[in-house]
Amino acid sequence: MSRTPKSRARRCDPTGLMRTSSPVLVGRGDQLGALRAAVPSQPAVIMIEGEAGVGKSRLVRELLDADLGPIAVLMGHCQPVGEPFPYGAVLEALRDCTERLARNHSRLSPVAGVLAGPLPELASYLPEPPPPTGDPRAERHRFFRALRELLGILGPVLLVVEDLHWADDGSRQLLRFLMGDPPPTLSIVVTYRREDVPGGVPLGSAYRPPTGITSALLELEPLDVAEVRALTSAILDGEPVSAEFAAKLHERTAGIPFVVEETLRALRNPAGAVHADGATARRLLDNVDVPVLLRDAIAERLAALPSSAVRLVQAAAVLGAPAGLELLGSVARINESPAALTHALTGHVLHEVGPRRYGFRHALAQQAVYDTLSGPDRTELHQRAVEVLDQVDPKPLVQLAEHSERAGSTSAWLRYGEAAADRAVEIGDASTATALLNKLLADPAVPAADVDRLAIKLGQIAHQGLDQLDPAETLERLLSDRRLSTAARGEVRHYRGVLLIRQAGGIEEARSELERAVADLTERPDLAARGEAVLGLSYLGMTPMSEVRPWLDRISAARVSAVDLEQKMALYANEVGSKMHLGDPSVLPGWSFPPATTSGELRQLARAHCNLADALTTTGHFGLCAELLRDGLRYAAECGAPFTASTANATRARLDWLTGDWDGLAERAETLLDEYRDLFPLASELCLILGSLATARGEWAEATSYLTETGAFAPEESITPVAIAGCAALARTMLAQDEITRACVDVDRGLAIVRAKGVWVWATELGPVAVSTFLAAGRETDAETLIEEIAAGVEGRDAPMAFAALAWCRGLLAEARGQDALELYRQAADRYSALPAPYLAALVAEREAACLVPSDQEKAAEILSALVDTFDGLGATRDAARCRHQLRSIGGGKPSRRGRRGYGDALSPREQEVARLLVAGHTNRKIADVLFLSPRTVEQHAARVLRKLGVSSRAELQAEDLA
């Protein structure tokens, strides 16, 4: 299973308890910045608005945790229940100001004496109370003036009043008075939920800040998916979170931070759950209990509604999707639907989530209401939902299937569920189809007569989509289910084998399952041939070619004898890819794809294009590869083949790496890795790309973390060319750090794979780094033997990249022996350039420059200077720094990228490189090694980075600071 590497180790709580809130504020940087800027600019009024749980109090706490200088903080809270306490929140805040009042009380006028009764704690510092006026309005105005005067002499002061929506009328009037004309040394911050404010007006009447004061209205919105992901990771001390889990968590919680935190608390193993793929994330989060505080809040709101509104809300909970008034009323069977809906909306249980469509704020609120229903009530409402929805045109089949299942109607559940799956396939939604069929097949009440049909349909659909794990588990379970007929077992085994290939650690089991399936499918020779076509794939695991070739021969014979065009194209798609991976010279002169006339033929045409394109990245026909990918992706989109499209997307990323299209490649590959995390063949290739990019930047820990996920350490369960390239990249990473022994281990491991498979075309990336490593280790004979093996292995093969690598290997050996290597290096560089593979061509040109230094320093300097530009343009900062260092060592020089100029408070290119390595946790000495600088120079760069980014230590530096 691939993963996203962590830049920092996770801190473990020795108690085993999970933290319940994020240690850092997420998604509120702009609001916090505005708050911190406004508060010191007195007088100031800041109103913070947002729904329950959105993070108003957390934002205030972040403000108060900062250094506010001489400003004193007075804090008051409005309470939802209890005895009436006029002006309670403000009076509560003032009870802590005794020390400041003691220093300044002589400045108070006699009117302040009215405060002695409400604030007995301060009475000894207050004037004598003035006589009563007998006029309540005058008394209130005098009281307000006194409080304003008191706050004025205490300054500078920050008055914070939380939960203004619960304030009494007197407190709202008082705050409006203070905010209408605040003392010069007062800042006021109030928080509130607009939906709970009586009349929707926080201060009881319209308020407009007066001129001449600082004012701000901060409206806090729920977090988006990326912010939910960041919040979850922060709560779990930096644990990486899958995109699928974050998306599902956002869907369940509507991005409300409090609900996110409570949901994570309710999970049994949140640190493990956050790595889950889409289906697993959905299963985990759908089954999590509603957090207690949320359940109690929903119950309190329901209790305040009339019975008709409660029934309408229950109908909405059963429907589970936003609905119109007519539908809600029909399911609830109530007559006074408009009035009931109005109560549900004003009670903030239901919300208008779209034009005239009503539902819950988030899925957990819906679940909390659903959980209040008794079993018979739920069944009745679900059955009523089936009756009502069956009259809708077009029928919402997925909803009908779900309600039928929950109503206990097996026949309707089967009828609607299968129809919904069929419709999903028609519109290209394989994920929904597989989810429905998985659920149907998990139901023991489904008759045996239907199981064969559903199981085969699941296999057919799942191998075209991206959801692999659940269908494979379902098919495995069915093989021991007595309801599955003997005749259907071969087909079920076949589809399970195909799905297993795409899972981490599934290749050997997949081959075994497919071999059994081929033996079982005597009545289905067409499907048996497709199983043989998978067994004939040359690049799966460590099965030697002596065992693979007989299957390849059988594919060729079956293709020639096939009558059905779709079958012929299906076999050809596997055959052409497998043979081209071997560098078979007969493939490209003879390849041709007949036109497709059906969706099935188009699907196989897409596969053939994408399979051949993938093989061409291994052998080195990059121009043709790009053309095939373009057409293959178009065909896959037209016929609805998401898995085929996914393979093309991964191949496109690999091609971008090879051809030097690195701009944004890391971000693209990360995005794809998040999406295809559970498709091992794709995830391993994407990890190879990300690890190779990190090596070029000199980020060794990140590179190693990715490269260990390429299958390099488990070749028997790998995509073999990717595993070999992973060994090569690991060795290059070790060699760059002068870890010769470890580089030898990686090289020897990779060569063992090549020799076991007997395919030397796959050594194109391993060969040069292996020869370099052997020569560095004093193993010249091993280097010479390896070159001979590569030369013999690629002879007669159609593999341009292999011949470029062979020339590079020979140049390295000639250079080590003191022989003329220039012509060999130029030959290798020319061959790489022709592919084109600019990064590899540049690495070879660097060796050419090294050979020229003794005899022609001017030419060597010219080459190195050009290479600095090439590597900088690619983003290979480590390689660019190495060439600059070599250039300086021979008396040349080249300024850093984009020349020298003043950057002000922006980071210079060199400072960006240093900052990136600081974020990765490197020490100054390690950064100096990566960038070929002195530790003192790095220290100076690091100091400027921290100053410009406004952080006090490298521990505070985050990747987001560099955006």
Say how many strands there are. 7
Beta fraction of the residues? under 5%
- Helical content (DSSP H or I, runs of 4+): 55-70%
Strand order of the largest sheet: 2-3-4-1-5
User: Which structural class is indicated by helix and strand composition?
Assistant: mainly alpha
Low-confidence stretches: 1-17, 897-901
Largest sheet properties: 5 strands, parallel
Q: What does the overall shape look like?
A: flat
Secondary structure tally, helices: 46
Mean pLDDT: 88
Q: What's this entry about, in short?
A:
With 963 residues, this protein is mainly alpha-helical. Helices cover 61% and strands 4% of the residues.
Describe this structure in words.
With 963 residues, the chain is mainly alpha-helical. It is 61% helix and 4% strand. The chain has 46 helices and seven strands. The model is unreliable at 1-17 and 897-901 (pLDDT under 50).
Describe the SSE topology.
Layout: H1 29-38, E1 44-49, H2 56-65, E2 72-77, H3 88-94, H4 98-104, H5 136-154, E3 157-162, H6 169-180, E4 186-192, E5 214-219, H7 225-235, H8 243-253, H9 257-266, H10 270-273, H11 278-286, H12 292-303, H13 307-319, H14 325-332, H15 337-346, E6 351-354, E7 357-359, H16 363-370, H17 375-389, H18 397-407, H19 410-426, H20 430-441, H21 448-462, H22 469-478, H23 486-501, H24 507-520, H25 525-535, H26 545-561, H27 565-581, H28 587-590, H29 599-619, H30 622-639, H31 642-659, H32 665-675, H33 680-697, H34 700-707, H35 720-736, H36 740-757, H37 766-776, H38 780-794, H39 800-816, H40 822-834, H41 838-852, H42 857-874, H43 877-889, H44 909-919, H45 924-931, H46 935-949
Parallel strand pairs: 1-4, 1-5, 2-3, 3-4
Antiparallel strand pairs: 6-7
